[in-house]
Amino acid sequence: MSEEAIKVRGARVNNLKNVSFSIPIEKMTVVTGVSGSGKSSLAFDTIYAEGQRRYVESLSAYARQFLERMDKPDVDEVLGIPPAIAIRQKNSTRNPRSTVGTQTEVYDYLRLLYARVGTTICRVCGREVNKDSPESAAQETLGALAEGARFYVLFPAEAGLRVEMNGNGKAATKRKKSSKAQGPTAATDRRTVTAHVMSLMQRGFTRLFAGGEIIELRSPDDFARANFEGVYVLVDRLVARADVRERLVDSFETCFTEGHGQAFVQTVGEEARALKFSERFECKYDGTVYAQPEPRLFSFNNPYGACPTCQGFGNTIGLDLDLVIPNPQLSLGDGAVEPWTKPQYDWARTELRSFARQEKIPLDAPFQELSEQQRRALVEGKTGFGGVRGFFDWLETKKYKLHVRVFL
Q1: Domain span including residue 21
Q2: Closest to 318 in 3D by CA, of 407, 396, 397, 404
Q3: Is this model's pTM higher than 0.90 or not?
Q4: Could you report the per-residue pLDDT of 321-345, keeping only the tens digit for each?
Q5: Are 154 and 43 part of one and the same domain?
Q6: Is residue 329 packed enough to be buried (19+ CB in 10 Å), middle (13-18) or exposed (0-12)?
């Protein structure tokens, strides 16, 4: 048994028959079993009872009179047990959204666990998604680069670019909020580019980095490009050493502020490499932005976390072809599509026959012998014909009628 564990030897409470076990401390342990197996006897009548009893006995006589006294459980020895608490299992509030998790309040703890301890994995590349800070970016940079490696600290030059909307004197300011380092199109007005370069110079940035070269800015004319695609503002030039950490943190703070939460590190040398950092909760490798984990994101009772399709109720109305076409051996002419055999939907059967003649789909062949393309056209529809799915989508708009609700 581990030293960091609650050790119980010879427990004989209720259904427990001389049971010995250990439970690790500071870990989540779940006790499961069939009804009557002794779960409550183990958790409440043994562990909780002994932990609470020892805690109460450690208090003064005056304090003990206000607390519940627990009987000593029938057990040979209990070691390493800390003060214990027990959460009442009763919850009388019920609603249509209630589940076992919400009724027992376990769901609240699971939401908190996933939000605070969980790891977000990028659905595109499979890597871990993190939100960077100046301190974490500096630590990762110094840890990734070899001692003495030279590198530049950069942010995208397009950040904060003023784009002229038209040539009639009207202008608008548009901050670029894309997570990717994309510049404006080649048609960007030269005056806009010059104005942005002047803005950078006025803020103290006199060096740009593009294509592996540094562009010194003494005047706006020193930047001859038509746009800022692939162009970065050079904030600092450093050598990877432990004593530059504080300066590197300051440089990253500048990048995140001026670069709309983005920063880059570009090494100098034959084997140049680039590191990307972002204050946004996004994947560094493909730029996919994710919602930052928080408890409400994992709640189906909250619009922020509920499924947009079922709205958190856990069920949706879908198309079951086995019910729509219960006997695929029937032909379309013999009523293979069962809902359209009803008298009130004669118009749908008429449209079906017209569509079948137009698409050269045989009306006398069993449905199961039709080609995959023909069956898909009948179910999904084509131009001018809604198909089976379109028919049920139309019925969804008529659910205020009782007979439609009964039919569905």
Answers
A1: 5-79
A2: 396
A3: no
A4: 888 999 999 999 999 999 999 888 9
A5: no
A6: exposed
